[in-house]
Write a structure and sequence with these properties.
This protein is an alpha/beta fold. The chain has 5 helices and 10 strands, in the order E-H-E-E-H-H-E-E-E-E-E-H-E-E-H. It folds into 2 domains: about 1-130, Collagenase (Catalytic Domain); about 135-234, no CATH class.
Length: about 230
């Protein structure tokens, strides 16, 4: 499946502070390496990149409404809109990037990535993962509803008083990504998780530390088979 991507590149008013075309091509190559497993090939649509000399947008000095209005005025509907700026903000907070989970409407057909994280082989595929239906591995880990927190066990026939596996309908809804307690206190040294948090069964967590959809920075990053399956059907 060939999927077009429309880059929208911001610089400062004087043309500085932007991403190079080489960096953008490298990011595309990394995306294609990651998504070739499920037969997806991304390509840049059109004959040129859309470039905007606007310090306000490039430095994140705009509101969420401003970015929404800009998208409505400049987006394409026949591809994924990829916005790259030096600083990306959501709700006033700087982030490496953001998008919407499997966007169904054109207003949400947008992925933002900061120039500094475009090419570190984590943030860009992470945001594209969201776009194709993936939640964070730690999704709902701090939910007030305990039933929404993913258990460690993968046994769907536990004996009372233990609770059977819920990985198919809780957490990130994927069973080959280990339950991840990211939003509770943890310890991780040299990318080896050694936290002491336990789930509702009293089981110790043992999450992956190098999944593209987590918030850790342990290389090599990757997707699991279950995540690829979700993206291919999402």
């Amino acid at each position: 499946m060939n999927i077009p991507v429309k880059p929208h590149l911001f610089t400062n008013d004087d043309g500085s502070g932007g991403v190079s075309h080489t960096q953008l091509n490298d990011a595309l190559a990394e995306l294609n390496r990651r998504f070739s497993t499920i037969g997806i090939v991304f390509y840049f649509s059109g004959t040129s990149f859309d470039e905007y000399a606007d310090s306000g947008f490039n430095q994140g000095l705009v509101t969420d409404f401003d970015t929404f209005a800009f998208h409505q005025q400049n987006a394409v509907n026949n591809g994924i809109n990829l916005y790259v700026a030096q600083t990306v903000q959501v709700g006033g907070d700087a982030v490496g990037g953001y998008t919407y989970l499997t966007p169904m409407w054109s207003d949400y057909n947008r992925i933002w990535v900061s120039t500094g994280q475009l090419n570190e082989n984590k943030t860009t595929p992470h945001e594209f993962g969201h776009y194709f239906g993936l939640s964070h591995t730690f999704n709902n880990s701090d939910s007030n509803a305990v039933s929404q927190r993913e258990l460690v066990t993968r046994n769907f026939a536990e004996t009372f008083p233990r609770i059977s596996a819920n990985c198919d309908d809780s957490g990130d809804f994927i069973c080959d990504t280990e339950s991840d307690p990211y939003n509770v206190s943890e310890a991780a040294a040299q990318c080896m998780y050694d936290g002491l948090e336990t789930d509702a069964n009293g089981d110790l967590f043992h999450p992956q530390t190098n999944n593209i959809m987590d918030y850790r920075w342990c290389a090599p990053h990757g997707f699991t088979t279950g995540q690829y399956n979700r993206m291919s059907t999402g």
